[in-house]
Amino acid sequence: MPEIEILFDIYYPDEEVDYRYYYTGRILSHFKWFDQVVEQSDNEGISLIQGLHGHAAYQFWQDDQKDSLVRNQSYYEMKIRNNEDWMKKIRIKAKESKISVEEQVKLEAAWTLSNSK
Predict the structure, then answer these.
(1) Phi and psi, residue 59, nearest 5°
(2) Is the Cβ–Cβ distance between 52 and 29 less than 8 Å?
(3) Quick one: pLDDT band at residue 20, thresholds 50, 70, 90?
(4) Is the separation of the CB atoms in 59 and 26 below 8 Å?
(5) Would the CA dihedral through 54, 60, 62, 64 be positive or negative?
(6) Among 76, 71, 40, which residue's Cα sits nearest to residue 55?
(7) 97 and 104 Cβ atoms separated by less than 8 Å
(8) Which string of b and e fits 63-79 if b means at least 16 CB within 10 Å?
(9) pTM for the whole thing?
(10) How many contiguous H segments (helices) and E segments (strands) does the chain have?
(11) Are 47 and 41 in contact (CB under 8 A)?
(12) How far apart are CA 103 and CA 99, in angstroms?
């Protein structure tokens, strides 16, 4: 675990895990993995951030298959972002509500979390 995450856990022990940040941080802290993402992003003609988010989403998916992740707000935000059909609906809702897609993702995740218990 990178030092910054250790410090964050010490100072904010009750804070929810932000899965997108967590998985992106894991990639950035492993040089070989990061180099693979850079090379793959270049080869596919996508931005590095798109490559990072893609790899983070895949790692999230793998861990989710093990049913080992905490179902918090961040969990549902990642589930939404990783589902094309759900994101299409989010874009429509965001446009109708005149808010950003990111804000709509957060609202949808909060609703899903509150209705999943």
Answers:
(1) -65, -40
(2) no
(3) confident
(4) yes
(5) negative
(6) 40
(7) yes
(8) ebeeeebeeebbbbbbb
(9) 0.68
(10) 7, 0
(11) yes
(12) 6
